[in-house]
Write a structure and sequence with these properties.
By secondary structure, the chain is of the alpha/beta class. The radius of gyration is 27 Å and the shape is elongated. The protein contains 15 helices and 9 strands. Helix 5 packs parallel to helix 6, helix 8 crosses helix 10 and helix 12 crosses helix 15. A 5-stranded parallel beta sheet has the order 2-1-5-6-7, sandwiched between helices. The two termini are about 50 Å apart. The longest helix is centred in the C-terminal third of the chain and has 31 residues. Bound molecules: 4'-deoxy-4'-aminopyridoxal-5'-phosphate. 4'-deoxy-4'-aminopyridoxal-5'-phosphate (PMP) binds next to helix 5. This is Aspartate aminotransferase.
Amino acid sequence: SSWWRSVEPAPKDPILGVTEAFLADPSPDKVNVGVGAYRDDNGKPVVLQCVREAERRIAGSLNMEYLPMGGSVKMVEETLKLAYGENSEFIKDKRIAAVQSLSGTGACRLFADFQKRFHPDSQIYIPVPTWANHHNIWRDAHVTQRTFHYYHPETKGLDFAALMDDIKNAPNGSFLLLHACAHNPTGVDPSEEQWKEISYQIKVKGHFPFFDMAYQGFASGDPERDAKAIRIFLKDGHLLGIAQSYAKNMGLYGQRVGCLSVLCEDEKQAVAVKISTILGDPELKKLWLEEVKVMADRIIGMRTALRDNLEKLGSPLSWEHITNQIGMFCYSGLTPEQVDCLTNEFHIYMTRNGRISMAGVTTGNVGYLANAIHEVAK
Ligand code: PMP
């Protein structure tokens, strides 16, 4: 009996299920009002002109290197301005810690994990109703969930009184999840006056507001205006968190793939967009496959060369593992001291665990590297 026998298929995403059913329907009259993605007046998905233009401008000019740990610095910088304000003192004072994330979902997930790690006994208060994934995200992060009143079915508006009561009754210092604007699924937002009262009460209680802002610009058409709730909280001196997404407001729903998905006029966008361009085009895909093979073959060739060189030098040690291992790295077995020696005496740099990135080995340096390894491993 294998250990994964108890693994059940994940429940289908209800919204994607809607789309599937839609696609399967042969009726010429069908309408898909399930998926939360913008369509034009003909029901067609839209790629923004600014995105096309950005693509054009960056085309061919980017390398595919790793971004820093926090993602694209420039993109994060611009994104913060949208939420906190162009001239935010908090940005100037560098009071905001921010990283690129896998779209809004990834931002929520990162926050939930962060909350669990640094405040393990805290709970999250989530509005009723909310975007279904909020429940999944905080559940998977093992944060206890509570709910607060939000929607009033009779008025089809905000249940403001009950919401305020719930905020008051939550234990001091609770975490509250708030939709910054364009609440999903209800489309009901507090008024500016109500936001002020909510902010006040949250401050009194010492709660921590976490804003999910997946739709900045979609509520009013003006991203600046849609940030007003957040600005009220900032003015009131809260510490807060914000999840931002470019899925909706830049029409970049799928760009999360292969790259962190919050994006703008920058690297990240390019990388994600390029990937779909490449894989969607048979010719480019063929070329890509060829190029992948060239890369892998070169590394394999360097493995053989490194091993041959070491053996030719008469090393009594076994270097079979160099060619047995696969992928980019060779876990050489060199000790930290030997690595230090390589670095100090031979200017060869690698992590002290002895890991050699074979990608850095070339026809030009393989002899030198082999000799150095032979010397320090003697
Ligand atoms: N929060 C809310 C409220 C949403 O509706 C969505 C998208 N449906 C997201 C976050 C995350 O979307 P994405 O991960 O595509 O940015």
